[in-house]
Amino acid sequence: MNDLLRSGEKIDDLMRNGYRIIQDPSRFCFGIDAVLLSGFAKVLPKETVLDLGTGTGILPILLEAKTEGAHFTGLESQ
Prior knowledge:
By secondary structure, this protein is of the alpha+beta class. The chain is built from two helices and four strands; from the N terminus they run ββαβαβ.
């Protein structure tokens, strides 16, 4: 997978289901606040989730990895 990295990028292990994400530390990266929030959010089985102002999109990714929700969407306007 390292051959997919561009200059300055790194691979972060999300510690869930073997998920990893490529981030560039010189740009906006997700922080511990998103990881903590994913621990408080409750998603019921087969539920649909919409994260408005998702930023990096990490919250829907983490929630998909840890819940049995049916569909996850992140929407960012920037």
